[in-house]
Amino acid sequence: MPAQLIDGIALSQKLRAEIAARAAALTALGKQPGLAVIIVGDDPASHVYVRNKVKGCEDAGFYSLKEQYPADLSEAALLERIAALNADPAIHGILVQMPLPKHIDPHKVIEAISTKKDVDGYSVLSAGELMAGLDGFRPCTPYGCMKLIESTGVDLRGKHAVVIGRSNTVGKPMALLLLQANATVTICHSATPDLGLYTRQADIVVAATGRRNTLTADMVKPGAIVIDVGINRDEAGKLCGDVDFAGIKEVASHITPVPGGVGPMTITMLLMNTVEAAERT
Ligand code: NDP
């Protein structure tokens, strides 16, 4: 029987309705959730991402502040703006769209954002909170993957989860979230010699490599749940993920499509973190 699709669009819609209801309750108390998005320079893809984030905020009833600066903005000026937003009570979340122009140190910028407003969850302190199992903001993409996995109804306790990829924004936090949910976790990466050896033992595989066909049907245990984070293009220019969707859907129990799986969840979890930040103030 072919795998069941995990529909990221439908789950996003459901969660966004819940977020909008929470936002409305806060607004009624005079505490409308506010997200500030800063974009520096004119990278076209970044502008599309920012537009989608701003629209997501508006649809959820948030106050949305978009600050757009030319590519020659100085690092000092950007840090000054972040300090002002840290102090602004109307703003509960601050996001600086990456990548930044080369003369600006992204680490300095991320660390300048107050941990209370770090709704991207990228700062060292937020990463430490996740590591230590403390309340904090989880990076949006792995947080969204957890919601997709939960939506299958699986109990992760005692299950073996394999994460392919170890970036700070996806792979590592993904592994920690799975560990927190009591899965037994293996992390694989480009220096893993025989990927299939690990993935064939997995009840859940999360692929986050940015390489097409990292995972093929022969590498998947029958009945496994497969979450595909990757965003790639095939020879025809069509959007595809990291896994061989056509082959794996004949073996897995559940699989996320690309597009329509993990992608829509990322902004949803940004909104979730922002409403949470407002509730905590
Ligand atoms: P990075 O390039 O930062 O990390 C990729 C990871 O994959 C690295 O840890 C790398 O290993 C590992 N890797 C690369 N090739 C292989 C291989 N052949 N076998 C095993 N491991 C491998 O990417 P990100 O984590 O930022 O993103 C991963 C993918 O997810 C990208 O396609 C990105 O576009 C997508 N993405 C999608 C999002 C969404 O909203 N849907 C959001 C964020 C990312 P090593 O560390 O050894 O180099």
UniProtKB/TrEMBL annotation:
GO cellular component: a single term: cytosol
Listed InterPro entries: THF_DH/CycHdrlase (IPR000672), THF_DH/CycHdrlase_cat_dom (IPR020630), THF_DH/CycHdrlase_CS (IPR020867), THF_DH/CycHdrlase_NAD-bd_dom (IPR020631)
Entry binding sites for NADP(+): 165-167, 231
Origin superkingdom: Bacteria
GO molecular function (one): methylenetetrahydrofolate dehydrogenase (NADP+) activity
An example Gene Ontology biological process: tetrahydrofolate interconversion
Tetrahydrofolate dehydrogenase/cyclohydrolase catalytic domain mapped to chain residues: 6-120
Keyword set, alphabetical order: Amino-acid biosynthesis, Histidine biosynthesis, Hydrolase, Methionine biosynthesis, Multifunctional enzyme, NADP, One-carbon metabolism, Oxidoreductase, Purine biosynthesis
UniProt KW Oxidoreductase keyword: yes
Pathway linked to the protein: One-carbon metabolism; tetrahydrofolate interconversion
One of the Pfam families matching this protein, by short name: THF_DHG_CYH_C
Tetrahydrofolate dehydrogenase/cyclohydrolase NAD(P)-binding domain boundaries: 139-280
Catalyzed reactions: (6R)-5,10-methylene-5,6,7,8-tetrahydrofolate + NADP(+) = (6R)-5,10-methenyltetrahydrofolate + NADPH; (6R)-5,10-methenyltetrahydrofolate + H2O = (6R)-10-formyltetrahydrofolate + H(+)
NADP keyword on record: yes
The enzyme's E.C. designation: 1.5.1.5, 3.5.4.9
Biological function: Catalyzes the oxidation of 5,10-methylenetetrahydrofolate to 5,10-methenyltetrahydrofolate and then the hydrolysis of 5,10-methenyltetrahydrofolate to 10-formyltetrahydrofolate.
Family: Belongs to the tetrahydrofolate dehydrogenase/cyclohydrolase family.
Subunit structure: Homodimer.
Protein name per the record: Bifunctional protein FolD
Upper classification of the organism: Bacteria, Pseudomonadati, Pseudomonadota, Betaproteobacteria, Burkholderiales
